[in-house]
Amino acid sequence: MENGDLMRRVRDEFLDHFDEEIEMELQDYAEDRASDERVSDDVADFRRAYFRELHRLQVELVKLQDWVVATGQKILVVFEGRDSAGKGGAISRLTQRLNPRVCRVAALPAPNSREKTQWYFQRYVAHLPAAGEIVLFDRSWYNRAGVEKVMGFCTDDEYEEFFRSVPEFERMLVRSGIRLIKYWFSITDDEQVFRFTARIQDPLKRWKLSPMDLEARRRWEDYTKAKEIMLERTNIPEARWWVVPADNKKKARLNCIGHFLDQVPYEEVEQESVELPPRKHHADYYRQPTPEDLIVPQKW
Question: Which residues, in sequence order, are CB contacts of 191 under 8 Å at separation 6+?
Answer without folding.
Answer: 247
